[in-house]
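Protocol step 4 of 5: obtain the predicted structure for the target chain.
Materials: sequence only (see below). No template structures provided, no constraints applied. The aim of this step is simply to have a reference model before the mutagenesis design in step 5. Sequence pasted as it appears in the construct record:
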Amino acid sequence: MRVAPSIVLTELDQATLERWAGGRATEVRLVQRACMVLVAKTLPEST
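Step 4 output (structure tokens):
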């Protein structure tokens, strides 16, 4: 079974993703991708 590597974000990356995820003027697909990365970051790493 494949295990995805854990996601490590800098403070700047985290802030940028959060801004994109909450932006109303941001493209929908960018908002969706930002949300996916933020959610994936919070999931526990599979072993």
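Step 4 remarks: Residues 1-47 form one domain. The chain has one domain: 1-47.
Proceed to step 5.
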